[in-house]
Amino acid sequence: MQRALNRMSANRTSTNRTSTLATSALFVLTAQLLLVSAASAQQAISERIASVRDGALRLSFPSREGVCGNGSSWIRTRDGSTTGSWNGRNDVEVQCEPGPVRLVIERQGGRTTELRTYVGGQWRAASNATDLGEVAASNAIEYLMREAERGDAQSAKQSLMPLTIADGEVPWPRVLGVARDQSRPQSVRTQALFWAAQAAGGKAADEIGAIARNDPDLEVRKQAVFALSRRDDGVEHLLRIARSSTDREVKKAAYFWLGQSKDPRATELFAEVLGRP
Q1: Which residues are CB-neighbours of 210 under 8 A, at least 6 positions away?
Q2: Are the C-beta atoms of residues 68 and 98 closer than 8 Å to each other?
Q3: Strand partners, 43
Q4: What is the pLDDT of residues 54-96, one digit of tens each?
Q5: Mind giving me the DSSP string for 80-129?
């Protein structure tokens, strides 16, 4: 009787192990299929864009929470800041629609020359535009990130804003990598710094501070100082630059933005420099 019980217990244990192994294998296979599917979707988007030598393409993707727009001239982000064009008057009340992000890609001679971004609204009829439909935010982010890393100055610069309002994980280390990349156009690098300052977390202030102190391009250094002024954790870096930098222009910029910060540590620095009574 005991032998039979032992045999049943062993069979049950073996069955459980087999079931666990099967579940693990199924999980791994599913993850691999998802990765392959995502890579295929991204390749399909890139290939469809590349297949248009001259003309316009359209695509849309979900916007992150807190982002809305009027579908035409302006976009409002989660922190309440607004980007876009205004006519100087406020005669008409418009609705701030929460998405999607709409992207127009202009192609000329097989290269992307311009990106235009809208949030909300509806596409106008345009027979000469290739419509790629709605794509996953992650695929849009990857396309825009590659444009920032490799595209021409104009389109690369214009790729960074839509990248930050997509409903997905923004690869901030890569955005900061664009800011550090001395082979990229100055305008692209400064835009990367600007947008990283808005939302990049973690150790972004340390990296931006290093650029402000060490980059060989003066305009990039000054933009890095401005980027630090946009971050709650940037004051310490501005104080360090103000106290120790030998770069007159960068030092002056640091003092200016510290003066705008109303931070007690900045007040203390100014008291030291001016001399206490």
Answers
A1: none
A2: yes
A3: none
A4: 999 999 999 999 999 998 888 888 765 666 655 555 566 678 8
A5: S-EEE---S---S----B---EEEEEEEETTEEEEEEEEESS-PPP-TTE
Percent helix, percent strand, percent coil in the chain, to nearest 5:
55, 15, 30
Q: Which residue has the tokens 């294998």?
A: 25
Beta bridge partners of 105: 57, 115
The answer to whether the beta carbons of residues 156 and 148 sit under 8 Å apart is: yes
Phi, psi values for residue 250, rounded to 5°: -65, -40
Residue 241: half-sphere exposure toward Cβ, Cα within 13 Å: 33
Structural tokens at position 82:
């607004």
CB 105 within 8 A of CB 54: no
Element (H, E) at 223: helix 218-229
pLDDT in tens, 173-184: 999 999 999 999
Q: Radius of gyration over alpha carbons of the chain, in Å?
A: 26
Phi, psi torsion values for 27, nearest 5 degrees: -65, -45
